[in-house]
Specification:
- This protein has five helices and seven strands.
- The protein is of the alpha/beta class.
- The protein folds into two domains: 44 residues; 128 residues, Glutaredoxin, CATH 3.40.30.
- The longest helix is centred in the N-terminal third of the chain and has 38 residues.
């Protein structure tokens, strides 16, 4: 029969004491790990308004957009060849869309060669028509994305979202959120050729 001696008791007591210290310091270790990951993220200077887009530097997805004002008119990629395009996903129910809306009139006036497409995303046709009739229509073409399938092709997950397509048909810029004069001047305007 094995006997328990004083060394075994001291060893067990010391191990329990070490385990207790380890358990007490575990929350501190977790906080340090989380803080480290957060610091690394912040040092990378990632902007939550600029999430990565799978479409950047890719060709414009195939689109066939029915015109909001004339259902017999359809806009496709064929009609967009060799045009520099600014595509804006909006909806009449979207409050941030209403904030950016006046800027598109200014863009259209100052950049007449930039083709502006508004895509009415998951909206009721009558509401969209009323909105554009009351607030004005700055777009060269307003397409309907009633079910959200075009938005899905573009990777839209919140409104408004704006894409810049160069004359070669490649998406070269994406902005999530309401467009501002500062963003247009500093980030989009330099890309216009």
């Amino acid at each position: 029969m094995a006997r328990c001696n004083d060394n075994d008791i001291v060893w067990t007591y010391r191990n329990k004491k070490k385990m207790k210290k380890l358990l007490l310091s575990l929350p501190l270790i977790i906080i340090i790990l989380i803080s480290s990951f957060l610091l690394i993220y912040l040092l990378q200077k990632k902007d939550p308004n600029k999430p990565p887009s799978a479409l950047l530097n890719e060709n414009l997805p195939e689109i066939n957009l029915v015109n909001l004002f004339n259902e017999e008119e359809i806009l496709s990629n064929y009609n967009l060849k060799e045009k520099t395009i600014l595509i804006n996903f909006f909806a009449s129910w979207c409050a941030p869309c209403k904030v950016e809306h006046p800027l598109f009139f200014d863009i259209k006036k100052k950049h007449p060669n930039l083709y502006l497409i508004g895509i009415d995303h998951k909206d009721i046709k009558e509401d969209a028509l009323k909105y554009l009739n009351e607030e004005g229509n700055p777009y060269d073409y307003v397409g309907v994305d009633k079910k959200g399938s075009v938005g899905l092709d573009f990777g839209v997950f919140g409104l408004p979202e704006t894409f810049l397509v160069n004359s070669s048909g490649k998406i070269i810029y994406k902005y999530l959120g309401p467009l501002t004069k500062k963003v247009f001047k500093n980030e989009i305007k330099p890309l216009l050729k």
